Amino acid sequence: MSYIFIHAIGQDSTNWNETISYMSKANESVLCPNLFGLIEDKKATFENLYSAFVEYCKNISQPLNLCGLSLGGIIALNYTIDYPEKVKSLVLIGTQYKITKFLFTIQTVLFKISPKSVFEKMGLQKKDVLELAYSMKNLDFSDKLETILCSALVICGAKDNPNKKSAEHLAKNIKNAKIKIIENAGHMVNVENPKGLALELEAFYQ
Predict the structure, then answer these.
(1) Rg value, the chain, Cα
(2) Cα–Cα distance between 33 and 178 in angstroms, integer?
(3) How far apart are CA 76 and CA 80, in angstroms?
(4) 182-206 burial by CB neighbour count: b if 16+ within 10 A, else e?
(5) I want to staple 72 with a disulfide (CB 3.0 to 4.6 A). Which of 6, 29, 122, 175 is the partner?
(6) DSSP result, 102-135
(7) What pLDDT, on the 0 to 100 scale, is given for residue 202?
């Protein structure tokens, strides 16, 4: 069985290392793709990122256990809706199911004021990340959540107030989902409380 951990904007695959180190899955088939490496020289749009992730998964024959944070969660959610037969379980961390105008505005403002170093870690320019944000502004999976039938876990950091309402909605509208709040963590749970996240993931996967 394959476990795929999908990172957020502003992160890369190494941000999962500490979480995985606390898990028994550390020696199993855990994959952490670098999202922006998958698209190579293509534009950093959501469509290109998602298409590249779909291609990445085509090379994996085992059932998939998807775990995504923020952008990674949106990609995992989209994939589970499109390819339900391939997904055994789904973990959504700090994930929005719909990009509202308010969220889009806040996100783009944050990107505009962030230093270049934040984006260089991802191998991108600031304009690329802004283009990605604009490509996601109309995403809305509201009407498709009820089609997800695999086992699901919705996680939100206790300090991640902008995403709590979305987490509650996801847990309520995905049939086999439950919700867990991670203490001492904001949005980037895998960085702020990797051990707490690992414990919840371990319990879910068992």
Answers:
(1) 16
(2) 26
(3) 6
(4) beebbbbbbbbbbebbbbbbeebbe
(5) 6
(6) HHHHHHHHHHHHS-HHHHHTTT--HHHHHHHHHH
(7) 94
